[in-house]
């Protein structure tokens, strides 16, 4: 073998190594989890390749219609869950890593009504209130678009310092917006002017909830804490303290005068809404079912007498009084669950990260129906 | 049962990621500073592995006169030449692949670092979810929770994106990575005067390794380029202290064909005509310079 051919061989070998290592070290394809919404007997799930909205009968799982976004979606797999309001369904689909389109479509037939181009990604479900659709984008802006004119309302958008990953909460003429910049903003829903802001100890990726009877907002943060904030002033409620063992990513649930909180530490907590102390026998540890440590990204939901949580490993667990009542599936989970479950008419609907929808009977966890997007669709 | 992925995550990715995040939190939330400090620490930790190779490189330079003698003696019998060279390397305690081994040792480190950078600078939901599961539960690291999502910008450059995505001046980064890598490899590799396989490999390394690292820098996040550049500069300084700084005078006697061939001689007939060029690739620039002085003296004597 000549020196030249040896050198060539070494060079080819190194180049091959470079290509192989490029593949090994390449960033994973980032997507977000399926969007799942229940409204008026219809389940809206975003699934399939290319992504589209499937509209399913909540009782039978039969496909009623689909909405296929018509824009150029250059392999970018980001979208928001669907929201329905004012006779329209709204959804955001990314066109590139920095641009999205907000679509309004017929919630029954799936026909597009109009669309507007938006800078950056829409990851959280838009919210409809009084003829206006509110939504946040990954560039930190909160938008308010007049549905009638399809133009931005005067004074909007409102700029925050980091991405918006949660839907705004619209109540009493105010828009409460959580931002990854650690702040909860209270804005005038009409003018977009800031009324107050509250700084948490970590990023806020969940929508706040409002306990109207106490006029208190509750929100979990990435520092593991749940914050109780006075809705009128933005001041923290004195004497309220709770901290989980990992991030709180999802919305807290107010049910039966308790605050239910799921955390990435894999536990479901029930808190006293005045003090934040954990009510025994909670917390419930999802590890009790699988025997392995698990995380809970999705928000807890109330289904009849149970609080239902879905774990990242792919288990659905119904809890009552701090004890597990039923879990699904009985065998090995099929795929992770990161999407908030939704409840309609005694059924719990779950979207798995593989695109499937599973519907379980709330009282015993028995499977009611399931839906898989057509292959290659 | 632990798979290779779990082992990698537990022993490479998580320690590196948490070290980076901890540095980020104590360095005022500047990720680029965290990368630089992290690189210095990694290089210090790798010193016991790298130092023998760098010393070996110096010994290789010291063997050059003997290698040249072997070249003269067995120039036509390649097999015998190769055998004698290997014997000489063995006697001198030299690893002829000394230049490429330090580079190879770094591979797992920079793959782990790349994954750590991507995870740490994650700014999409699934990336942050993955990050949350790799941060240590210890209270020492819980303060990092409050820092997420991290500041991923340096002079308005997004360290999580590639030069290809960012465009503009960021294309200078792969070029600088390739240049510093070439300089480091040039100082480390010591090609022999013969044309043995090891020498050939080393000569290829001088060109291919920098090109490969430049290629990586072009395709991976700019944060990784920071690691490469700082790591290369430290390597150059360390090698300089061990075997002298002559290798930095790369522009002396530099010509395109030398660069492309890694300084290797091209044919036996040419070797016979000039002993100085035979040793060019491995020899320090000083050696080449002194060779040209000798030639000048010879010419003067003839006159």
Description:
The complex is a heterodimer of chains A (377) and B (303). Chain A is mainly beta and 377 residues long. Chain A has 2 helices and 32 strands. Chain A has helices spanning 3-25, 287-290; strands at residues 36-39, 42-47, 52-57, 63-67, 83-85, 88-94, 99-105, 112-119, 127-129, 132-136, 141-146, 151-152, 158-159, 169-171, 174-178, 183-188, 194-199, 209-211, 216-220, 226-230, 253-255, 258-262, 267-271, 284-285, 301-303, 306-310, 316-320, 323-328, 342-344, 347-351, 357-361, 367-371. Chain A starts with a helix and ends in a 6-residue tail after the last strand. Residues 22-30 of chain A have low confidence and may be disordered. The termini of chain B are far apart. In chain B, strands 1-2 form a two-stranded antiparallel ribbon. Chain B is elongated, with a radius of gyration of 23 Å. Chain B is 71% helix and 1% strand. Chain B has helices at 4-26, 31-62, 64-74, 78-92, 101-120, 125-134, 139-142, 163-166, 172-188, 197-219, 222-243, 256-260, 268-273, 275-278, 285-302; strands spanning 153-154, 157-158. The longest helix of chain B is centred in the first third of the chain and has 32 residues, at 31-62. Chain B is an all-alpha fold and 303 residues long. In chain B, 42% of the residues are buried.
**Biggest interface between protein chains, with counts per chain?**
A-B, 43 and 36 residues
Structural class of chain A: mainly beta
Strand content of chain A: 35-45%
- Gap between N and C termini of chain A, in Å? 53 Å
Report how far apart the termini of chain B are. Answer: 81 Å
Quick recap:
With 377 residues, chain A is mainly beta. Chain A has two helices and 32 strands.
SSE topology sketch:
The complex is a heterodimer of chains A (377) and B (303).
Chain A: H1 3-25, E1 36-39, E2 42-47, E3 52-57, E4 63-67, E5 83-85, E6 88-94, E7 99-105, E8 112-119, E9 127-129, E10 132-136, E11 141-146, E12 151-152, E13 158-159, E14 169-171, E15 174-178, E16 183-188, E17 194-199, E18 209-211, E19 216-220, E20 226-230, E21 253-255, E22 258-262, E23 267-271, E24 284-285, H2 287-290, E25 301-303, E26 306-310, E27 316-320, E28 323-328, E29 342-344, E30 347-351, E31 357-361, E32 367-371
Chain B: H1 4-26, H2 31-62, H3 64-74, H4 78-92, H5 101-120, H6 125-134, H7 139-142, E1 153-154, E2 157-158, H8 163-166, H9 172-188, H10 197-219, H11 222-243, H12 256-260, H13 268-273, H14 275-278, H15 285-302
Helix pairs in contact in B: 1-2, 1-5, 2-5, 2-11, 3-4, 5-11, 9-10, 9-11, 10-11
């Amino acid at each position: 073998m000549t020196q030249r051919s040896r050198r060539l061989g070494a060079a080819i070998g190194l180049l091959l190594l470079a290509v192989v290592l490029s593949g090994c070290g390449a960033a994973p394809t980032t997507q977000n989890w399926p969007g799942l919404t229940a409204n008026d007997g219809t389940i809206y799930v975003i699934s399939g390749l290319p992504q589209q909205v499937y509209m399913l009968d909540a009782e039978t799982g039969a496909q009623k219609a689909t909405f296929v976004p018509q824009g150029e979606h250059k392999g970018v797999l980001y979208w928001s869950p669907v929201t329905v309001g004012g006779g329209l369904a709204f959804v955001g689909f990314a066109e590139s890593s920095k641009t999205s389109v907000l679509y309004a479509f017929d919630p029954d037939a799936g026909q597009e009504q109009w669309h507007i181009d938006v800078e950056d990604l829409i990851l959280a479900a838009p919210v409809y209130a009084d003829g206006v659709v509110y939504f946040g984008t990954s560039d930190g802006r909160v938008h308010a678009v007049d549905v009638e004119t399809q133009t931005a309302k005067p004074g909007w958008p409102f700029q925050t310092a980091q991405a918006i990953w949660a839907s705004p909460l619209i109540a009493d003429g105010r828009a409460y917006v959580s931002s990854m910049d650690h702040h909860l903003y209270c804005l005038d829903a009409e003018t977009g002017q800031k009324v107050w802001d509250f700084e948490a100890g970590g990023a806020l990726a969940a929508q706040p909830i409002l306990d109207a009877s106490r006029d208190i907002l509750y929100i979990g943060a990435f520092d593991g804490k749940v914050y109780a904030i006075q809705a009128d002033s933005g001041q923290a409620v004195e004497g309220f303290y709770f901290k989980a063992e990992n991030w709180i990513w999802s919305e807290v649930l107010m049910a039966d005068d308790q605050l239910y909180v799921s955390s990435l530490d894999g536990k479901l907590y029930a808190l006293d809404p005045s003090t934040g102390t954990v009510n025994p026998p909670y917390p419930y540890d999802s590890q009790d079912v699988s025997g392995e440590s698990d995380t809970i990204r999705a928000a807890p939901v109330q289904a009849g007498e149970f609080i239902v949580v879905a774990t990242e490993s792919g288990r659905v667990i119904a809890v009552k009084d701090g004890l597990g009542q039923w879990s699904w599936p009985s065998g090995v989970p099929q795929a992770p669950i990161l999407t908030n479950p939704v409840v309609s008419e005694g059924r719990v609907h779950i979207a798995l990260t593989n695109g499937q929808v599973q519907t379980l009977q709330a009282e015993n966890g028995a499977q009611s129906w399931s839906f898989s997007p057509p292959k290659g669709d | 049962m632990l798979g290779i992925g779990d082992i990698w995550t537990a022993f490479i990715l998580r320690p590196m990621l948490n070290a980076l995040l901890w540095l980020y939190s104590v360095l005022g939330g500047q990720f680029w500073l965290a990368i630089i400090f992290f690189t210095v620490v990694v290089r210090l930790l790798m010193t016991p592995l790298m130092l023998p190779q760098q010393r070996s490189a110096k010994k290789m330079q010291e063997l050059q006169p003997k290698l040249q003698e072997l070249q003269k003696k067995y120039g036509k019998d390649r097999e015998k030449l190769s055998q004698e060279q290997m014997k000489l390397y063995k006697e001198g305690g030299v690893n002829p692949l000394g230049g490429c081994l330090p580079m190879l040792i770094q591979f797992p480190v920079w793959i782990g670092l790349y994954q750590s950078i991507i995870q740490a600078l994650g700014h999409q939901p699934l990336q942050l979810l993955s990050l949350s599961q790799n941060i240590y539960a210890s209270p020492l690291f819980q303060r990092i929770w409050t820092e997420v999502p991290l500041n991923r910008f340096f002079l308005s450059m997004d360290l999580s994106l590639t030069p290809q995505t960012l465009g503009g001046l960021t294309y200078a980064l792969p070029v600088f990575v390739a240049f510093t890598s070439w300089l480091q490899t040039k100082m480390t590799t010591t090609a022999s005067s013969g044309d043995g396989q090891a020498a050939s490999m080393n000569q290829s390394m001088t060109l291919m390794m920098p090109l490969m690292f430049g290629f990586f820098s072009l395709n991976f996040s700019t944060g990784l380029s920071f690691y490469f550049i700082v790591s290369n500069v430290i390597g150059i300084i360390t090698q300089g202290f061990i075997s002298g700084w002559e290798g930095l005078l790369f522009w002396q006697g530099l010509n395109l064909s030398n660069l492309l061939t890694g300084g290797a001689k091209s044919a036996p007939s040419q070797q016979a005509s000039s002993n100085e060029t035979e040793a060019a690739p491995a020899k320090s620039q000083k050696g080449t310079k002194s060779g040209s002085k000798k030639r000048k003296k010879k010419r003067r004597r003839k006159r």
